[in-house]
Amino acid sequence: MRFWVSSAFICVAFAMAGCSSTAEQKSISAAEDTCGANKVMDRIGEKLDVDLFREIEMAVPHHHVRVIKPDTPVTMDYVPDRTNVKLDKQDVITEISCG
């Protein structure tokens, strides 16, 4: 009985951890932040619209922003001053990175 209760508690804890919906991304190191992504990391979790896109575009130094939606083909070339904004299917920002 004791083993079953412990196992059930562990399973519930893992299930609840998987339900966490906070969109959080660690900041990029200063050496890697060639595009100014750290300036807009606080936008992760927000729904992207035209106004938010323009706000991000104006906040990054080179104003070079690429929006990446799910299942959208993208080139694999690395452009150091380009800010990539990745979205989920509901147009919520899930990741911001350089490249």
From TrEMBL:
<dbReference type="InterPro" id="IPR021719">
    <property type="entry name" value="Prot_inh_I78"/>
</dbReference>
<dbReference type="Pfam" id="PF11720">
    <property type="entry name" value="Inhibitor_I78"/>
</dbReference>
<keyword id="KW-0732">Signal</keyword>
<protein>
    <submittedName>
        <fullName>I78 family peptidase inhibitor</fullName>
    </submittedName>
</protein>
<feature type="signal peptide">
    <location>
        <begin position="1"/>
        <end position="17"/>
    </location>
</feature>
